Structure formats: structure tokens, C-alpha cells
Amino acid sequence: MAEYSRILVIKLKQPGDVLVSTPVLAALKEAWPEARVSYLVRRGTEEMLADHPLLDGLYAAERGRGSWRESWRLIRELRRQRFDLALELSGGDRGAFFAWASGAGERIGFARARQPFWQRCGLFTRLLPRPPARLHMVEHDLEAVRALGVSPRSPRLQFFWNREAEAKIQAWLADRRLSPQNYAVMHPGAGWRFKCWTPQGYARVVESLMSDWHLPVVLTGSRAEHEGELLREILAECRTQPLNLAGELTLKELGALIAKARFFFGMDSAPMHLAAAVDTPAAVLFGPSGVFNWGPWGTGHLVITKDWECVPCGRDGCQGSKVSRCLVELSPEEVLQRLSEWAAANQLK
After folding, report:
1. Could you read off the pLDDT of 87-102 as tens digits, one per residue?
2. Between the CA atoms of 348, 21, 314 and 193, what dihedral angle is there, to the nearest 10 degrees?
3. CATH superfamily of 167-345
4. Which CATH fold topology does 6-146 show?
5. In 10 A of CB 69, how many CB atoms?
6. What is the spatial distance between Cα 203 and Cα 244, in angstroms, rounded to a whole number?
7. How far apart, in whole angstroms, are the C-alpha atoms of residue 29 and residue 234?
8. What's this model's pTM, rounded to 2 decimal places?
């Protein structure tokens, strides 16, 4: 097995994708404990890795093309680090370019369909075969590590937060007389509305948890316009009043809040992966996305999805409608039944 002293991992994707790649960091550090391992991610996703005790360096590339000056400054900084290995896990043109521009002597990426000749023969020193389509993204990313002769042991997601985030969440809970394990976090939104359930469905779950289970519900959400609209519709439907923290938390604070919850309820989203990373049981609804690729990593989680032949389709709604029938036709009754059975079996109710 080769020796490496400076390793760069490139993951220019969404926050959830970055978090799902953290087993790569642990595997590299296990194989080469003395090596400096750094990450290059998209601007805005750094919180998924910041404060990780195994990480030695963290760089951010601007979304889109950014300015030439900023890109050149980043490239100069990467080259100053004198990386001897770059692992490109993004699968895109920008990641391939930064792998080459880093100056790393060994540059490894995955082959992909219709990959340009200039990438296949110029930017990488080694292209790995495309992993199977039905492989979980954790295992997909770890294929790059296995290609180096490393066999990762018990891969798990990891997420860390600082004292300020911990103190803020502890104070918020204390002000509302909530104790750890005595509330549920519901994050209804996702990156796209077609991956979300109905406001009526979410409202019925809120009411059941609060009235029947006597379990307070904390609603969370991003500042995205479509998520704000969804939260307003849910609150208008609710006959009980959940606690609402939507748009008020950083990713670090959200992780700290989920870590203390009895369980998480939501969609295929970055907060779902946060729940898995902080060992909080997650009950999640899946529609067009493949559970085999993106399901909550680990054991003890619940995935609720329609048993239809067309699921998953990977599309943005049925027939271009931006509405996924496999989600909107999930009834509150069937979701609550599955949720109740899961909670009882795992002593969460």
C-alpha cells in the first residue's frame, strides 16, 4: 500500500452529500494516521465538516464559476499544500479541474457516462470503474478508498458542533422546559418541493404526536422560500401548536437539536443525514429518490414509501408536474400506523 502525507478529498455537492462522505475521512485517517487530510467543498456546505477532529484543512469553492481572482487564489493555496493524493468524489467537471489544478501527483476519480476525453486522459492519473447504480452513497464514496487498498471498518457518519451551538440549544430547551429525549424534531422541507409530503399530512402527524403521544414537536426548516411556504401551510392546518424554529438555526445548531431529540421525522434531506450522523432514530418519507442510494445510514431507522413499480423514478414529479403522487398519496393514517409500530418496537413511544 502506498504512503501518503497530504491528501485532498473533493466533494463539490450539496450539504447532505458532504456529510455522507465523512466515512471517507475516517477511513483515510485510519489507514494513514500521520497524513494531513483536507477537504474541498462548495461554499455554504462547510458546516458539515467544520469542527471535525480528524480534519486538517477545509477549503471552499464558490458556487457557479465565481470570480477568476477567487478561483486563482484557491488554486494557489491548494498547490501550496503540495498534496500527493487527490480523491475526486463529486463526479463533475469542476471537481475534476480542481483535482488537476491542485498539483497532486496522484489524482483519482470515478469514470462516468459521456465523460469528456480531456478528463479521461488529462486530469486524472487513475479512473475507477463506475460503482453499481443501486449502491448507497456511503459505499459509493468508500469505493475510492478501497481502490487504495484500504478496507474501512464499520463506516459511520460523523457530525460535530462547537460550544456556542451547544450552549444555544441547551438554553433554548431550558427556556421551554424541554429535556433531552422528550421531544421530536420534524423537518418537513427538502431541497425541492416535489420531494415533500402534504401540509395536511404533516399537520396530522404533529397533532398525533402532541395530543396522543404527549410528545412536544419542534418544527425546523431552512430559509428557502418554498420551505417557508410549506411551514406556513402546515401551521395553518395544525389544531395544536408545535414549537417553531424554522429559519432560525445554523446547521451546527440543528445538529445539536436533533442529537437530543427522541427521534427525527422528515424527508430525504440533509437533516435526515444529520439525524443518522448524531445517532438519533429517523423516520423518513421517500418518494422519487432511491432509498438504496440515499436512505438514512445505519440501523434503527424507518423508511416509509409507496410500494409501486415506478418508485423510485428519479424524476422531479409525475409527468413533469413537480408533484410526486407516490408522496402526496401517502395517507396520514398509513404514515401514523407505520410510525406507531416502529416507535413501539424501538421503545420510542
Report:
1. 999 988 899 999 999 9
2. 60
3. Glycogen Phosphorylase B; (3.40.50.2000)
4. Rossmann fold (3.40.50)
5. 8
6. 13
7. 44
8. 0.94
